[in-house]
Amino acid sequence: MAGETLGVIGTGRMGGPMAGRLLDAGYSLVIYDTQSEAMQPLLRRGAQQAKSPADVASRAEIVLASLPTPDIVKAVALGADGISSGNRARIVVDLSTTGPGAAKLVAEGLKARGMTLVDAPVSGGIKGAINGTLAVMVSCPQGTYDTVQPILKNFGKLFYTGDKPGVAQTAKLANNLMAAAALVITSEAVAMGVKGGVNAKVLIDIINASSGRNSASEDKFPRAVLPGTFDFGFATGLSYKDVRLCVDEAEAMGVPMVCGAVVRQMLAITNAKYGAASDFTSIAKVVEEWAGVQMRG
């Protein structure tokens, strides 16, 4: 309920805008991030700064975390001075993409401390975080879902996937694999078109009016590839991490990932060539270099 104090750990590119929406909704926040500059916009708006994840979890009953990797999530949740060391938190909402294995491990560790994990990865990028149009996939016990629903609806559309931790992560990994795959195949198709004499923008318009349209042709190409800015807002290293997690989890389940393995390789190449901090639309730059063309328009 608005007015209560929530904890937020991780106030970066996604966590910052989501925390801002909670302030807009009337919640009080106690926040923590290892990068003090990431907290400044929220502190200026009245959020309180905590000393550690444990401090956050000693000052709020519900703690939300938005963190970049599974290892960081595990350390923040269960490590020294982590959330599990707090004495007040009862519900921990993890908005990160960690994969089902890490979600189950964190859920078990928190349960031993009397805390319930809400596995709640989000999709929709920085723009979605700012505008409150994210897809929020949620798995947790039904009663806990009823408690956190009013909070999470500030971020976008909720999809309840059941009561087992890790199920929402599986849904998120499936989505992120497809987003990366769309970028790879659109890059290859448009590079071929340009080399064959078709204007890149015209070809994207054709694809978007035809059966080949996808999230890359409708959004990422017009926004970040055709203008040559490569600044969509999602890091190559994070996309590579998500696709690696997805392929590994699928193989462990006995699900073939023939196309997924190729997408993982393309991200490995992009990550090696342009670095983890580069935008994942840099996949198109790799294809441009191989094809000897530029996809602009």
UniProtKB/TrEMBL annotation:
Q: What's this protein's name?
A: NAD(P)-dependent oxidoreductase
Q: Where is the 3-hydroxyisobutyrate dehydrogenase-like NAD-binding domain?
A: 166-286
Q: Which residues form a coiled coil?
A: none
- InterPro entries associated with the record: 6-PGluconate_DH-like_C_sf, 6PGD_dom2, 6PGDH_NADP-bd, HIBADH-like_NADP-bd, HIBADH-related, NAD(P)-bd_dom_sf
Q: GO MF terms on file?
A: NAD binding; NADP binding; oxidoreductase activity, acting on the CH-OH group of donors, NAD or NADP as acceptor
- What are the alphabetically sorted keywords of the record? NAD, Oxidoreductase
Q: Does the keyword Zinc apply?
A: no
Ranges of residues in domain 6-phosphogluconate dehydrogenase NADP-binding: 6-160
Q: Which residues form the active site?
A: 172
Q: Indicate yes or no for the key word Lipoprotein.
A: no
PANTHER family reported in the protein's UniProt record: 3-HYDROXYISOBUTYRATE DEHYDROGENASE, MITOCHONDRIAL, 3-HYDROXYISOBUTYRATE DEHYDROGENASE-RELATED
Q: Which organism is it from?
A: Bradyrhizobium archetypum
Q: Which Gene3D superfamilies match?
A: N-(1-d-carboxylethyl)-l-norvaline Dehydrogenase, domain 2, NAD(P)-binding Rossmann-like Domain
